Amino acid sequence: MKAEVAQASPEVRQRGRRLLVGSDLAIRVASVALVLATWEFFGPSLNPGILKPPSAILAAFPVLIGNGELQLALGQSLRVYAIGMAIALLAGLVLGIASGRARVLYNVIDPWVSALYSIPAVALIPVIGVALGYTGDLPRIATVALFGVFPILINTQQGVRNVDPGLLEVARAFSSSERRLWKDVVVPAALPFILAGVRLAIGRGLIGMIVAEFLIGLAGLGYLIIVYQNTFRIDRMFVPVIVVAVIGIGLMGFVQFIEGRVAPWLRREQQ
Amino acid sequence: MTAPVRISVEHVTKRFVSGAVTVFEGLDLAVRDGEALCILGPSGCGKTTLLRCMHGLAGIDGGRIVIDGVEVRAPSRKVAMVFQHFGLMPWKRVRENVAYGLELAGASKATIAERVDRYVRLVGLVGFEDAYPYALSGGMQQRVGLARALAVDPQVLLMDEPFGSLDALTRELLQDEFLRIYQEHPRTMVFITHSIDEAIALGDRVVVLSARPARVRDILVVDIPRPRTVASVIADPRFVELRDRCWRLLRKEASWA
Question: What chain A residue is nearest to B158 in terms of C-alpha separation?
């Protein structure tokens, strides 16, 4: 009895969750520094016109901020991305929960979901252009939503369908109401699946945003990339690329933070 | 001497896979008020299914099961169950898991707090109230499962091989602990097990079931006085005799499995 308790003290166990230790971090920083340094010193000697060094890219930031181009493009992109992802999240959660719960609905939407998820979403952008036109935010919002919705929908659906039957039985054994069953069992059980879906959707949504800006809207960060690529200002072209990367990394970190807050028990699975 | 019957299983039939497998047929069993009835049987004989039927978690295909004069159709709040798989919600802390049944029963906040404290103490988990189940060993997780069931102060306790998935040492420790708790808070209990020693140590009577389709092979009265501990039971001369009888009954059945 005593031995059992001592061995399983929660403080001890919780420290097992994965954290970056000092040496991990050092290797990561060294890796980035090495690549950037190589690029800085040897890149220009290979092709001075195209391989502008990191220092030149850094210097391009104040230029694009000074003339307002970056803020304008960022604003256009973020507005479209936020609305598109909100639609993807809402539609994915509602359809995912409903189809995870009701077999009929699952059979109704599954062929469409499977088909649309198998088609590279890029291939559908011309359809969006034809259907919604090439001007205004709407076609780009639709593209972001299309790219983002399926991982959320499918993960939510699987999360709801894969609830541990043992826990469902516990809920029944304690005479749980349907509402409490969702609160106590189904939603928390599906949450890790849903959050994994959201993490996938963040990346896919960013792809949708940039591709839509390349192919449809001629606005936002994607358009900025195209403009500077066409004028061979590779240093400036990298500015929106880096901004997109920062958005992606930031949002991933945010979802991970949310996960830690709403699902602290998941730390175990990340060990 | 003989207490009134609390749970009566009357000629109950249960089939699986749209009637292809008969789990038990025409099974009769009576659990008396306040007694600890252990059901012992070879693996796969349908012990767990019988317990699930008693709680209304599984339907039956014939006969009836009556608890306190009311036919069982769905789980009742008078009955609480402890599961072999523990059945703890990984997203609830120990405190919240113990409170689960009380919350569903609509107990007041003050009652919940008081009962949770009391039963956490009873099962020896003080200091672990805010831990998540993943941080606990199997034995401690089942203590939580036990506290959750006892916290609703059920009139009938159904135990589905609660120590079956624990290692041998932890199992013995918990058997002892459970004996102490049960003897402090005695109540009508049905305890499923495939361990002969466990059945004798915990039970007032031991029902030995046959292999599928399950029938009652024999019912043994464990006339070892309480309060017991696992050690005191094993030291009792009647233990050897009872174990021998159980073993002989089971061996006949196990050869069929």
Answer: A173
